[in-house]
Amino acid sequence: MAARSDLPKYTVPSLTPEEGAKVAGILQERLHALNDLQLTLKHIHWNVVGPHFIAVHEMIDPQVDAVRAMVDAVAERIATLGVSPKGTPGALVAERSWEDYSLGRASTIAHLGALDEVYVGVITAHREAASATEELDDVTNDLLIGHLHDLELFHWFVRAHLESTGGDLSTDGARTETGAARKAEQAAVGQP
Asked: pTM of whole model > 0.85?
């Protein structure tokens, strides 16, 4: 049987080259998502305005730093599996399955509403990736589960700004960033 050119020449012990390539492919999708997330978070950091500006501005930077560390860990795991990680902007844009973040300069509450949707997408896909690696590679699965802890914590920080004292989210039912931003702003001014 001839060697396939898309397989790594080596991978970690106990995985076949096919398994290593599969895990690396799953991680490459997460690498793109996390790179996009850290850029989106920094964009939000620069573009929030209005009441609670400083609180949100300062809340975002530690999230950026943590997500950048996740990016590095994922890229290094891909390389450990014998595959070259793709971290260029062109690769991210060409291979992503989501649209670019749509808000520019906007209120803190609008950005937090949109960020709620961003985190829903990232966390959902990260959970799917963790599930896909559960039986295949314990190390990768552990890495992804560790990331989920922080991502879900950051999501809670965002949602705390969107939650009523009764536990209702102002973004409930929104399915897009702009829809969530609009719902959050309407709730902030008391509109249904």
From this structure: yes
